[in-house]
Amino acid sequence: xxxxxPQGFRAAGVAAGIKASGALDLTLVVNxxxxxxxxxxxxxxxxKAAPVLWSREVLKQQRLKAVVLNSGGANAATxxxxxxxxxATAEKVAEVLQAGAIEVAVCSTGLIGERLPMDAVLSGVDxxxxxLDASAEASLNAATGVMTTDTKPKxxxxxxxxGWSVGGFAKGAGMLAPNLATMLSVLTTxxxxxxxxxxxxxxxxxxxxxxxxxxxxxxxxxxxxxxxxSGASGVEPTELELTExxxxxxxxxxxxxxxxxxxxxxxVNITVQGADSETDAIAVARTIAEDNLVKTALFGSDPNxxxxxxxxxxxxxxxxxxxxxxxxxxxxxxxxxxxxADRTAADLTARAIEIVVDLGVGTEAATxxxxxxxxxxxxxxxxxxx
Length: 386
Description:
The chain is built from ten helices and 15 strands. It has helices spanning 50-58, 79-97, 118-131, 136-144, 195-207, 239-259, 278-290, 292-299, 305-313, 375-382, and strands at residues 9-14, 26-31, 37-42, 66-71, 104-109, 154-159, 165-171, 184-189, 224-229, 267-275, 325-328, 331-335, 338-339, 352-358, 364-371. A six-stranded mixed sheet has the order 13-12-11-14-10-15. Strands 3-9-8-7-6 form a five-stranded mixed sheet, sandwiched between helices. Helix 1 crosses helix 2, helix 2 runs parallel beside helix 3 and helix 7 (278-290) crosses helix 9. The protein is globular, with a radius of gyration of 21 Å. Mean pLDDT is 94; it is low at 178-182.
């Protein structure tokens, strides 16, 4: 069990008929309490989907009874009508749960620019309500119901020795470049926690996990990460303990997202250390991660450190060419402004690749998680809308 692993939660994933394929396409997660504390982080993209606008507003009170999510349509760039559809979805969930719409978050994912088939969405809520369960099967169906180009559901769970736990699911395979959060994810915990602590813990966790995933530089209009706390364990962890377990589960999900990202053949960690600031470290790592010349070299298993040097050299950060070193899979190929070893000494034939850039000007560091750029990615995204 994952999203229903923590006590106090039920979930369901059903085929509402939003997708023409008949696949699972609507998910409902319900917090049965006794607490209904919640927190969320959302996309920084200026063009925000209607569900993001709705959920961001209801999260101001930091209380949620439920989250309803659909795949098969993003409900983004759909104008006032799209927002009304989101409101109607929340109202429907509130009706079946005998709650208020302001206690319901809504998430959508899929093609941008089209309205949702609301008859299917609303009837799907009824179906999902009847299917709510705390079983492992319910967790799996919930994680499956949010998939778009994902090839498999992503779930994670961790239990603390103190008797409380964190679980959750995520979806995302393309348009993955975080700005506070990326893709859709619902996390649950049965810890006893107040609103302020939960919010700080979520932001601290996402800052070093979801916010460090960068597959293709595309920040979605729908990016959302939500955490719901039921308090059903009766255990109140420290803020540090809560942050650590949220971070553990979030990183697990991030690595699953990366592994299943569109067309990926390489799992790449880019660590920048010796930076003047964490901001510089992140900027350098993200620039390398998003550079197409670097990504295509990685696809070809080519340890072309010159492309990495080119990419980092165009970042507006404190960089001294004489102190920079570039190490790929344990072999330092560039240092003190010149080649340090024959590039063929670095073996990139395996899926896992570790790139370490030491700027040599400070003490700060950051890691960004990325992939290569393959034929498969181009082919899948050239045909997505059809």
